[in-house]
Amino acid sequence: MPTVTLKEVSAGLPTTITVVGQPRVGGEGEVYFSNDERYAVKVYHPQVKGGPSTEDREKSLSYVRSLFQRLPEDQAEFILPPLALVDRFDGQPRVGFVMRRVPSEYQEVFEFVFTPMQAAQQFREGRTWADYLRVSRCMASCIDVLNRKGCTHSDIQYHNFLVHLKTGRAVMLEADGVVVRGFLRAKVDGFPGFMAPEILASGAGPSEKTDRHSLAVLLLHTLLFRNVMNPLIEYDTDVDQSEKIGWGEQAVFSEHPSDRRNRPSKVGMPLFRRGALSYHTLGPRLEALTDRALIEGLRAPSNRPSAQEWVKALACALDEVYGCGRCRQHFIYPHWQLPPERRACPFCGERVAVPRPVVMDLLEEKQRGAFQVSGRRLVLGEGFKVFADILDPRRMPPVSRQSEPVAAQCAWMARSNRYVLVNQSDGVWTSWMADGSRGPRVGRGESVPLQPGMKLLCGDGSRLLRVVEAPE
């Protein structure tokens, strides 16, 4: 069993590691795993002519290690930075680094999203589309962590993220290849199908702006199970040249409102009827980001939304998820569609059954007693929970709500033909009726009927809930 001797060791890390088993061999080197299953060791192939020198590689690794040395826990979970550099491998001088090992149940996102058939298999095993929404949020968080440190990735694609679909967690690979303008150059231009069109069309170098395109394509691929930039026509008799043109100077978003060159024939049809999911099923907030990234920003990179914008929108979208009564699949409830009778499951096409869910606006206090719409909505059906983070204006939804306190629960009262919200917190709520008059105060264990136009303040400093839609 080879022993790896380390240098520039982070606190708490041993100075030697024993690795076992056969390595995973890639283009840059081999990856070994420690015998205690805590660490992975990447050892680069020997220097080749024209490639980076040993000294340059070590300088880059040392710089990357210093950048990510003191990440807070809620950011460190998303990337695998160097924890120490390799000094010797089995007694021989080598270049490489040690990182934490990702649990074996994590898999490349490619294995879940490349085709709808892969997703269908996951659905049969109990996963839902909401799991893909969580994974997307975490992948955007990976890139957000890099951007906060002034880094970009330059190779954002479905092979470079490991995900655990059951929990929605994701980890970004290849942290040793991050790009820092003026310090660390890009090793690659990107991956076919994910590169920004300006890289192919004019030879532009990788940057945060090109990464924003790649991230948008990856997120949409994960949510819709198709590459939304895939060219459907040929531009040249030479296959490679046709591909370059189709992804580059002639690139078109598949659901561009006026250019239908790349539009799938059954886009917008239910997925389980051999249709293709449309980005319009993602709701107004995610739809707007897609427009900015892949329509407005396709030729104007400065218009592309940041990773942080995607993180916020994807996190908030989880509170708009609803379940189909027929196929049991989860989807973002189409509260924007009118009349409500048109609302249907994008997977099987079944109309949303009556009673339809409650839809609420989340308002935030901008000054004493004055609340403004935050752009967030909350969808509640029978048994749905309102978690404490939803009411706290200082917080975004956490990656997991397993330990998050429940502030309220929604229940359907068949006798009165309406929903009620039951207070499960220790605070006392204040309510207002649709006409502005003061409603009942609601203590722990008490409930309040939900009617269109009414408002609820669930304690001092909390967000204000305003009912937009509810059965009457």
Q: Can you walk through the features of this model?
A:
The protein has 11 helices and 21 strands. With 472 residues, it is α+β, with helices and mostly antiparallel strands. It folds into 3 domains: 3-100, Phosphorylase Kinase, domain 1 (2-Layer Sandwich); 107-320, Transferase(Phosphotransferase) domain 1 (Transferase(Phosphotransferase), domain 1, Orthogonal Bundle); 357-469, Sandwich (Tumour Suppressor Smad4), CATH 2.60.200. Strand 2 and strand 3 form a beta hairpin. Helix 5 (129-148) packs antiparallel against helix 7. The longest helix is centred in the N-terminal third of the chain and has 20 residues, at 129-148. The termini are far apart.
Topology (SSEs and partners):
Layout lengths: L2 E5 L8 E10 L3 E6 L4 E6 L9 H14 L5 H4 L7 E6 L2 E2 L2 E5 L6 E2 L1 H4 L2 H9 L4 H20 L12 E4 L4 E4 L24 H6 L5 H17 L14 H9 L36 H13 L10 H11 L3 E3 L6 E3 L25 E10 L2 E11 L4 E3 H4 L14 E8 L4 E6 L6 E3 L14 E3 L5 E3 L6 E6 L3
Antiparallel strand pairs: 1-2, 1-5, 2-3, 3-4, 4-7, 5-6, 5-7, 8-9, 9-10, 11-12, 13-14, 13-21, 15-16, 16-17, 17-19, 18-20, 20-21
